[in-house]
Amino acid sequence: MSTPTSTRPAVPSGPRPVAAEAAPRRRVRWPARGALRGSDEQPPRGIVSEAERRTPSVRVALGVVHTVVLVLLLVIGLGPILWLVKASISTTQDTLRSPMALFPSGVDWANLATAWSRVHIDLHVANSLIIASGSWFVQLVVATTAGYALSILRPRYGPVLYWLVLSTLFVPAVVLLVPLYLTVLEPPLLGVSLINTFWAVWLPAGANAFNVLLTKRFFDNLPREIFDAARIDGAGPYRVFWSVLLPMSRPILGVVSVFAFISAWKDFLWPLLVLPDPDIQPLSVRLPTLARSTELDVLLAALTISALIPMVLFLVFQRTFLRSAGLSGALKG
User: Fold this and answer.
1) 257: buried, middle or exposed (CB in 10 Å: 19+, 13-18, 0-12)?
2) Which positions fall inside the ABC transmembrane type-1 domain (predicted)?
3) What's the first-to-final CA gap in the chain, in angstroms?
4) What pLDDT, on a 0 to 100 scale, did the predictor assign at position 53?
């Protein structure tokens, strides 16, 4: 009886093949300690380390130093304003004899009422608000439209116009007083003098190169994809400016608004030249004239009113001016 043949493949009797040589091992260099933690990396050590801060003596010493520095900053920053408020409700004798005393003869609230009614501070406050509001609006319109043209539209002559606007920053403002006054006195194409009108203050305020450059630099950092998407959807230049650019520009609009309002409120020389009529002069121009014929306590009360109004307005509208949600109105969904 025959045996079945095996199906196992035959093993060659020759020498076994040599395996391929292993690739040389690379030496892995691990990053330094703390490099992979990103934002969790330890900050560099300052004058006082974290271990020293935990000791009670160092902690108490640092608290005393911080308190002293904070008090000094408050005294230096708020001291003059607080003294002005105190002097405005004190008598003239108390202010002259003991200026640093705290109400030796009591509080005199009548100074504020007298300054508001008899010196007609209310009229000049209204004039200052009108001038500041008009100057703010003109500066905002010129700054946003000029920045939009230079940054987003980018005409062929844009670089030349940009350098021309930049060069005006190196011209002293005093040099421009005479030609600007002659232009306001006899404006071209109008034939009517703008002296003793608020337009004489509003229109020159728009020629502010700093605001134009400030808005242009902000517009340069905005994402271009949003403007391209708006153009693809059929939006024209005016629609892009009104519906896309302005909602994204709330932070820079707030900064320009604060600068424009404060500069117009405290401006003295130009309103003095173009507004000779006392009935339309702002507070900054009228108060030095009233100082010759007004009691000291009433004058200080008027100065307090003129200083507190812009401070209160800024505190009320600071969230609107300095809101950082620049992209909230442009991105949907």
Assistant:
1) buried
2) 125-317
3) 87
4) 74
Instruction: List, in sequence order, every beta strand (DSSP E) within 122-183.
Output: none
The answer to whether the CB of 128 falls within 8 A of the CB of 282 is yes
pLDDT at 44: 56
Q: How far, CA to CA in Å, does 199 sit from each of 125, 134, 195, 210, 244?
A: 18, 8, 8, 21, 31
pLDDT category at 282 given cuts 50, 70, 90 is: very high
The residue among 13, 281, 330 whose CA lies nearest residue 121 is: 281
Question: Would you tell me how many other CB atoms lie within 10 Å of the CB of residue 63?
Answer: 10
**Per-residue pLDDT band at 322 (split at 50, 70, 90):** low
| Rounded CA separation 276/168 (Å) | 28
The type of residue at 24 is P
- Residue 87: Cβ-neighbour burial (10 angstroms; 0-12, 13-18, 19+): buried
pLDDT at position 18 over 70: no
DSSP state of 150: I
Q: What is the Cα–Cα distance from 92 to 297, expressed in whole angstroms?
A: 5
Tell me the H-state helices in 149-223: 158-167, 177-185, 199-205, 209-220
Which tokens is 177 given? 């007083």
Q: Are 322 and 254 in contact (CB under 8 A)?
A: yes
- Quote the CA–CA distance of 38 and 62 in Å, as a whole number: 30
Q: Which amino acid is at 202?
A: W
